[in-house]
Design a protein that fits this description.
214 residues, 17% strand, 8 helices, 47% helix, globular, 7-stranded mixed beta sheet
Length: 214
């Protein structure tokens, strides 16, 4: 497999969304210059990114086939097979994730949610049933759940991580503000809202500085 960077990995879903839109419009081919014009990246950047995932180099003055690029990117990102997942912690954030319909397009199937609040246990959110925490281990084992989405209070996250790993979870999408310690072989992806906001604020400040010096 060709080497790729974290920044490239973050751009591939953006390319995929755009290519799916082209497919739905009946567009059969596109090129790096056209994608650059629509997405705001440089032609060279897009060209290098596509070289990582695409099986062919395209045709001069025609570009690459849209359907082929979709297939290549979906395969690279692991979207070709649905992975069963659950949400643990059904507050405002957990509820929002349960209601989001786009995860299926990303290869993840949210099957259920878990919480200890008796007011919501037994209800459905986004078509997914909310179970009590006492059912967590049984459900993960019986359903073969591989991804656990954490939207729980920070102080509960580490112990919970250890539990779900013992139950059979192999990946944790961590929306809590702490870093989880797990055994080797378990994948943890941290969603760092503070870091994302810092990048946003820095870009705003940098833009203001450039405008001021003109």
């Amino acid at each position: 497999m060709k080497k790729y960077s974290k920044n490239q990995l973050e751009r591939f879903p953006i390319y995929l969304k755009y290519l799916r839109e082209l497919r739905d419009q009946g567009v059969r081919h596109t090129s790096s210059p056209l994608m650059a014009e629509k997405l705001g990246y440089s032609q060279e950047l897009i060209r290098k990114d596509l070289q990582v995932v695409c099986r062919d180099s395209g045709t001069p003055k025609v570009g690459r086939g849209v359907m082929q690029m979709i297939d290549d990117i979906e395969t690279f990102l692991g979207y070709r097979k649905l992975i069963p997942a659950i949400v643990i912690g059904v507050g405002h954030l957990g509820g929002a994730l349960l209601n989001y319909k786009g995860f299926l397009d990303m290869g993840m199937h949210l099957e259920a949610a878990f919480d200890n609040d008796p007011r919501i246990v037994g209800t459905e959110i986004g078509g997914k049933k909310v179970f009590g925490m006492s059912m967590l281990g049984t459900y993960i084992r019986e359903k073969g759940i591989k991804i656990a989405v954490f939207t729980v209070p920070a102080e509960k996250a580490q112990l919970l991580a250890e539990q779900v790993v013992e139950y059979g979870v192999t990946a944790i999408w961590n929306w809590t503000p702490i870093s989880l310690k797990v055994k080797p072989g378990i994948v943890v992806e941290n969603v760092n809202l503070a870091s994302s906001l810092a990048k946003l604020c820095h870009k705003m400040a940098d833009s203001d500085r450039r405008s001021f010096t003109r």
